[in-house]
Amino acid sequence: MTGARVLGVDSGGSGLRVALADAGAARRAGAPPAPGTLRSSEPVRTGPGGIDADHLLEQVVPMARALLDADPGGGPPVAVAVGAAGMASLGERLRAEVPGALARLLGVGRVALASDAVTAYAGALGQRPGAVVAGGTGMVALGTDLTRWRRADGWGHLLGDCGGGAWIGRAGLEAALRAHDGREGGSPALLAAAESAFGPARELPDRVYPRPDRPAVLASFAPEVGRCAADGDAVAARILALAARHVAEAAGAVCPEVPRGAPMSATGRRVVAGGPLAGGAPGAVAVAAVGPPEVALTGGLFRMGAPLLVPLREELSRRLPYARLVPAAGDPLDGALVLASALASGSLLLPRHPTLLHVPMESGA
Hints:
Euk-type_GlcNAc_Kinase; Nucleotidyltransferase, domain 5; 15 strands; 2 domains; alpha/beta; 21% strand; ATPase_BadF; BadF/BadG/BcrA/BcrD ATPase family protein; globular; six-stranded mixed beta sheet; ATPase_NBD
């Protein structure tokens, strides 16, 4: 590894990952995997004060030092980006404590703290305008026109996450119980699948309601809905068609249209302004030439395949005819490296936000 180096951190419910990469190699989504990555299976604790900053640092700093020591010729990292689940609502301590601690302990001058939705966005689309839908147990959509962020859903399995894994699983189990009762809208195929997974239908409430991980339990049945739909079950197919509509609605709520009044570049692409240009004159901003907004899907939900993706592509094409559906280029750790590398080069275009993308040390001062 040669030249300036950056660190990316991805903290989520299944643990924490830290990666070290050349700043230039990490500058775009879809770059080759970082040559140095370490993992911890211990999730960062969350308490009454939000995400535990000390616990995050106790894991990140030794892992970062191990990566740096394995390649001692490059000096300290020039930038670090930390993406964390819960950053937007539970990240106050992280924003207050982590930038100074990383500067003191690792000698880093530029730090970004981001929601995991932002790092998912940057990993999937880089710094291009569009929308990213993250689907797993839940579902949330995040979009930007490079001047502001827009978010839709992500309200949890009781109030939202419409079209996510828990939503699909719950709808499938409802159809199973309708078949058990002899009500309209029931599916014998889903009833058989539910009893195979959970036991007799009459015991299903006792197996679901007391569980502290109820969203994950519900989501565990979503693949069975997909399997039944693929086998020709009309009820399962209708559930997935409605899920596709909900996901497309969220994408449509956040996906920007490129401003029609924006000036054109020599290549026929609109030119839009991003954030402050590090090292530039007062008021200078980074700019980018952008084409049509892009939409990417990321997360395990979309591994269900054709039973969900076929109706979803149709819904997206109908609701967002001006956008392009593209494969996600990378994951949230890749997104953290994209952010860190853009910080290092003073070319961060994604919009700053007090809780979604906090950049307190952008100037390196």
